[in-house]
Design goal:
- It contains ten helices and eight strands.
- The chain is of the alpha+beta class.
- Strands 3-8-4-5-6-7 form a six-stranded antiparallel beta sheet. Strands 1-2 form a two-stranded antiparallel ribbon.
- It is globular and about 60 Å long.
Length: 365
């Protein structure tokens, strides 16, 4: 395919070809796509704000024949998403820069497919997009339609008949009930790691939906990967509720950016904050904190974490008589308490307060 015809098909791209170590590289400039910093950016249709990637025989690509080096354990969607999220701030609080010729500190190539390989725990430095989509690699299986997409699935432009511009993004959730856009994580030229609304694969383009074959249906993501007993359920809090669970909810609301006094009493101000939070997450805005709201409200906290979400975890741990200072610092004493709690409740013992540990903390009394 000629460079001219590529430009005709892939618009709004400024390309500078570079030969480096046998790997084609590109600098892609898309000024109109500069991120605004909004948590809900406008949906972006398929377009190439990324460059050509290393080919399968490059030393920068994990060879498909080396699949035995790849992770074999079943991976939960939440764990995968949490891994992807780490690159948003891994570069001294900023995103990991995009590069097809470099690997990040964790050993993974800094382009889109290296990023996805990292999130999936594949062999380093990672497959390329063709390898991710190739059934011979045993990493993914193609879905029948985008309507089947679930958290952790992939949208891949892996085709080689239109040149070497290929891309892959990680689907997190639909942005609306019409399924006309979705939220996704991607590693892209100029910007590095981003989280935004996309429309890749919706309509006529080269993106196809794939599901990682080792992706399980659990709600792990650290903090007790094993599912709690069915008898353990999220508490339901509403106007008039009192106690430690309300205080933890108030602390989590504060962690989400809502100004609420953590006084353990579910009053009008707390209800108003809950309603605002529910609207921001496309939940039923009824002012009641039930399972769906808890699932969005909690935050994964671990060693080194700080702030109101840690205070919420410490508040809950103290209900079980761990005697922690509710100071918002996740230090050695807090981690030891989490580990002890996880052992006592037959959860995965990793010292991380994730969805399953939160659910058990709040629902096992």
């Amino acid at each position: 395919m000629s460079l001219r015809s590529r430009f005709k098909r892939r618009t709004r791209i400024t390309l500078i070809g570079i030969a480096a170590g046998g790997v084609a590289a590109a600098i892609v400039v898309v000024p109109s796509l500069a991120d605004s910093g909004s948590s809900e950016p406008a949906a972006v249709a398929a377009q190439a704000d990324y460059g050509p990637e290393p080919e399968a025989d490059s030393e920068l690509v994990t060879q498909a024949g080396g699949v035995s080096t790849m992770a074999t354990a079943t991976l939960s969607p939440d764990t995968m998403i949490n891994r992807a999220r780490t690159w948003l701030t891994a570069n001294n609080g900023g995103p990991v820069p995009y590069s097809m010729e470099r690997v990040w500190k964790d050993g993974y190539r800094q382009d889109c497919s290296g990023f996805v390989s990292m999130a999936l725990g594949l062999g380093k430095p990672g497959l390329n997009t063709v390898g991710l989509a190739d059934s011979k690699s045993g990493v993914t299986t193609r879905l029948g339609s985008v309507s089947q997409l679930k958290k952790g699935d992939l949208l891949i432009d892996y085709r080689t008949d239109d040149g070497d511009f290929r891309h892959v993004v990680i689907f997190e959730k639909w942005a609306n009930t019409a399924h006309s856009a979705y939220y996704a994580y991607e590693q892209r030229g100029t910007y590095g790691t981003t989280y935004r609304q996309l429309k890749y694969g919706i309509g006529s383009d080269n993106y196809d939906p794939f599901r990682p074959v080792k992706l399980g249906g659990g709600t792990g993501g650290g903090g007790g990967g094993q599912v709690p007993s069915p008898s353990i359920s999220w508490p339901v809090l509403k106007s008039g509720s009192q106690g430690a669970d309300v205080k933890s909810a108030q602390q989590l609301l504060t962690a989400q950016g809502y100004s609420v006094v953590a006084d353990s009493s579910f009053g009008p101000n707390t209800r108003a904050a809950v309603v605002k939070f529910q609207k921001s997450r496309s939940l039923a805005a009824d002012g009641v904190i039930g399972p769906n709201t808890w699932a969005k409200l909690i935050k994964v906290v671990k060693s080194g974490s700080s702030g109101s979400a840690v205070k919420a975890a410490q508040t809950q741990l103290n209900v079980y008589n761990y005697g922690l200072a509710v100071d918002g610092g996740f230090g050695t004493k807090t981690r030891s308490a989490v580990v002890a709690f996880q052992k006592n409740h037959k959860l995965e013992v990793d010292g991380v307060v994730g969805p399953n540990t939160w659910r058990t903390l709040l629902g096992s009394r």
